[in-house]
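Side project, low priority. Logging it here so it doesn't get lost.
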Amino acid sequence: MRLLPALLALAASLAVAGQAAAAEPCTTKDFATAIDQSGASLRTLTLEAQPKLQERMQRYRAALNLSDTDYENVALDAIQDATLDELDQKSSALLLRVDSLGRVPEGVQPDCAKLQELHAAADELNTVIKSKSDYMLKRLDEKIAEAHRNAPPAKPVASAAPAAPSKPVQNAPQSPAPTAPKAKKSPPPEVAAKAAPAPSEGWTASTKHDDARSPPVVAMTQPNEELPFPPPAPLPPAEGGYTIDEIRDATRGFFGTVSTSLASVIEHAFKQYGRPTAYVLGIEGGGAFLAGLRFGQGNLFMRSQPGVKKVYWHGPSLGTDFGASGSRTLFLIYNMDDPAALYRNFTGIDGSAYFVGGVGLTVLKGGPVIMAPIRSGVGMRLGANVGYLGFTEKPTWNPF
C-alpha cells in the first residue's frame, strides 16, 4: 500500500516537469536560427552532390557523344521517372512547410510547439534531398551502362601490310663516281662565329590556366550585390501602368543576347495581362540539380511611387531549373499600388508557363496581385518554379 502513494507522487512530479518543459519560452530568434540551419544543411547537401552528378553527366555525354550545351537537359530527361517526381513533390511540400513554420509575425508570441515541428520538417527535408541525390546517381549509372551496351561496335581499322625488306642487288653495274664539286672557301673563323646560331635550350614557356574562363560554381552562390545593368529611374505616373516600350527600355542590355526571345515573352505577358503597375529587375541563385531553395534580390520600381526599393525573394527549386543560378529575372507585377502588398507568398498558376528560346515565364498570384516572373539562364526549362515564391524586405533562409 505504501508503494501506491509513492508512484502517484512520482507521476505528478513528472507531469509538472513535462509542463515546465513545454512552457519553456522560445523567441523569434530561435525560429530564425532553425531556418538558417536548414538553409545551411541544404547548401551543404547540394555542394556535396553536385560534383558527383556533374561527373556522371559528363560520362553520359561522352557515351552518347552529346553536345556540350545540351547534355545536362538530355541526361535529366533520361533519368526522370515516377520516383523522382514523387521526391520532387515531397521536397516542394516540405520547403513550403519549413518556410511557413519559420515565419513568426511581428509582435506575436511564437508557438514553441511549432518550433519542434520546424526542426522535424527540416530534418525530413534533408532526408528527402539525400534520397533524391542517391537515386539520381543510381539512375545516371544505369543510363551510362545502357548507353555503353547499345553503342555500335567499333569498326576495325585496317592495318597497312608491312613493307617487304628490299633485297640487295647483286652484280649491279657500277656507275662512274660523280665528279666532286669544288669546295667553297670557308669563311674566316670570326665570321663563322657571328653566323652560328645560339644553342637551343628547349621550350621554356609555360601556359597558365585562365581562371576567368572556368565555369562558375552554381550551387547556392550569392547573387551580385549590385546589378550589372542598373535600369533607368521610373518615368512619371501614366494611366494604366508601364507601356511595353518602357519595359523594353528598362531591360535593354540586362538579359544579354536573348533580345528576340525576351521580346516575344514580354509581348505574350502584355497580351495576357496588360500593363504592369510595377516591375522588379534582379538576379537569382539557387540549388543545382537537387531540390532546394532558389533565392534572389533585385530592385522594385513602381509606377505610383518614385524611387527604387531593394527586395528579396525565395521559393522552391525543383531540380528542373538546375542552371538558373545567376540567372537574370524580370518580374512584371499587376494590380499593386502599395509595396507592402508584395511581402507575402505567391502561388504558381498551373498551365501558365510560356517558353521561347532560353527565356520563360510562369504566372504567380497572391491575393489581388498577379506577377509574371520572366527568367533567362542556362538550362531554363518549361514549367520550372510553378510552386510558390515569397518576397521579403530582408534576406531570409540565410542563403548568402
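Brief comment: DSSP finds eight helices and ten strands in the chain.
Revisit when time allows.
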